[in-house]
Please model this.
Amino acid sequence: MIQFEQIGEIRKYRLARSILGRGLYFTACYWIDGLVVDTGCAHTLDELVSALDGLPINGIVNTHGHEDHIAANAALQAKYGVKALAHPLTLPVLLAPREKQPLQLYRRIMWGYPAPSMGSALGNKVETEHHRFEVIYTPGHSPDHICLYEPEKGWIFTGDAYIGGKDRALRQDYDIWQIIKSLKKIAQLNPSLLFPGSGSVRKHPREEILEKIEYLEEMGNRILTLHREGVGDRQISGRFFGREMPIAYFTMGHFSGKNLVRSYTVNRVGIN
Model:
């Protein structure tokens, strides 16, 4: 399933595997001035390559190495002969995704394994014919995560560094304290438009990011208070978030409220 929207100079493609006419979980690809930012999952690569047909493609940037952001790299490289640029930690995943990033069953169902692709390490900037993007290191969602920021326009492409809403669950391998630090870094840029990995473009991003930071820090303080009193992670999760959401069972516990609590307590560094 693919959905298209033109936002000024930027072409947005929302992508998801479709089952019974419904998208399972949307991710986004953006095209701007010949640059493709993220390339979706294996189940949607043919649709994306077809949708980009006729556009100039001069390069790819992957915000991080998760399977729903890199899967059309190989097909676009074969068609256009372009480089894929990413954080150095992403490059081994691009080259050998099955070996370097084994997927749980739910990830194979929703996104599938990407084909191997070639990547080169990002520098501090990415230039297109009309734009110059700053590369902002934003770990937390993953250790290799970056954002692209165009200071003249105020655009920021955030991949999964910013996800809206009030989190009640987290994946096992996320680091909530790094997520908060990265959100603060993004907020300081005061972007005018935020293009996230979900495809839900934010027109007033700073306010929403600050609200998210406030929520996460307040929740962290409350969780750490109970943790210091000897309350267990599962009990803390039940007190603040109630019963686990269905996604916890679908992912066999890989994405859960307990993991959100654990990220606060295990990765504890305090609130800055």
